[in-house]
Amino acid sequence: xxxxxxxxxxxxxxxxxxxxxxxxxxxxxxxxxxxxxxxxxxxxxxxxxxxxxxxxxxxxxxxxxxxxxxxxxxxxxxxxxxxxxxxxxxxxxxxxxxxxxxxxxxxxxxxxxxxxxxxxxxxxxxxxxxxxxxxxxxxxxxxxxxxxxxxxxxxxxxxxxxxxxxxxxxxxxxxxxxxxxxxxxxxxxxxxxxxxxxxxxxxxxxxxxxxxxxxxxxxxxxxxxxx
Length: 227
What we know:
alpha/beta
C-alpha cells in the first residue's frame, strides 16, 4: 500500500533532503489534503515539533479530522498522544520518547500502550548508518532497527522504518533493510526513505510492507493516478 506523506515545517508543506535541506515548499495544504483524500492512510509529520524548534499544531488540528492520518512529530508524552488522537488521528507515530539512555524505554512504551492502546501506537525505528536515530534524526542510539522492534513489539501495533541514508534523494530505498525489519517482528511495518518507483512499492507490498512516499509524489516522479 502506498501511504502519501504530508510534512509540515514553518506553517508550510515541505520536503527535505536527509531531513535537513529544504527541497520543496508549498502553501497549498488544502490542495494536498484534497489530492490525498482517496488514500486509506496518510502520514502527517510535524517536523518542527520533531526537531524541537516549534510546532504546527494548528495545522495538525485542521488536517487530522479530514484524512485517515497517522500523526508524528513531538509525541513525547502520554498527554500529547492523547491530545493528537483527540484531534482525530487514527494513530500516533512515536520516536524519541521510545528511547532513553541509548536503549528502548520499555517503561514509557508500556505506560503509553496502557493509556491509548497498542493498536494506536506506531513505533518509529528510523535508521542512519545502521543505527536508530532520534530527535529529528540527529542523535543515534545504541540499537539497530531490528533490535528495537524486537524489544518494543509488545507495546506498538505497527512500526515505521525510515532508511534515513536515502531520505529525499530519490535514489531508491534499501529493500533488504526494510525486509529485515519486517522479518524481525510480527507487527505491520511501513517503510520510508527514498522510495521512488511503483516497482519498489510493489516489491515492498509483496513482502507485506507498506510504503510512505513523499519526494517522488511532490516532484511528480510518481504520478498519483498510477499509485
